Amino acid sequence: MRIRKATLNDLAGIMDVVRNSGYPLQHQYSQDTIKFFIDRHIVFVAEEMNIVGYMVVKENFRDGSELESIEVDNRFHGKGVADQLIERAEQTVKKLKKNKLYIKCWTGNLRASSFYEKKGYKKLELIKAYYSDGKDANLWCKEL
Which pLDDT band, with edges at 50, 70 and 90, does 25 fall under? Predict the structure, then answer.
């Protein structure tokens, strides 16, 4: 598997991942949002033959950086794609001379929460009604 920086040419592949990630429709990013991320933030894709995952790193968040989004095609869950993406995010943040990486995650996403905990992230706070449908998020952080 190869992890590389995304370009606008990757938009269709990233949108396939968004549609096949398993997230409810109301929580999926639009194509315009993904374009914005590629233009303004650090976006990586994971690819085998096709793009199977992506992530967005925002350089500045609080006293570190933020992993805005990490999504993997459902067909590739449990195959190490998220592991490789988050490792690249942490390396990128270190190169930016930041020592913390933050992640917001829906409180009901137990699979992701378990993954972040296993990767050494600590739950910092509950953000009430963070999502547009009123659901809460947990803010996670790892010191790098």
Answer: low
Phi and psi at residue 38, to the nearest 5°? -65, -40
Q: Which residues contact 97 (CB under 8 A, 6 or more apart)?
A: none
With contact defined as beta carbons under 8 Å apart, do 81 and 1 qualify?
yes
Q: Which domains does the chain carry?
A: 2-143 (3.40.630.30)
Indicate left, alpha or beta for 36 from its phi (over 0: left) and psi (-120 to 50: alpha).
alpha
CB-facing half-sphere around the CA of 77: CA atoms within 13 A: 11
Q: For the whole model, what pTM was predicted? A: 0.93
Contacts for 77-85: CB closer than 8 Å, 24+ residues apart: 77/22, 80/1, 81/1, 81/46, 81/52, 81/53, 82/53, 82/115, 83/119, 84/1, 84/3, 84/46, 85/3, 85/44, 85/46, 85/53, 85/54, 85/55
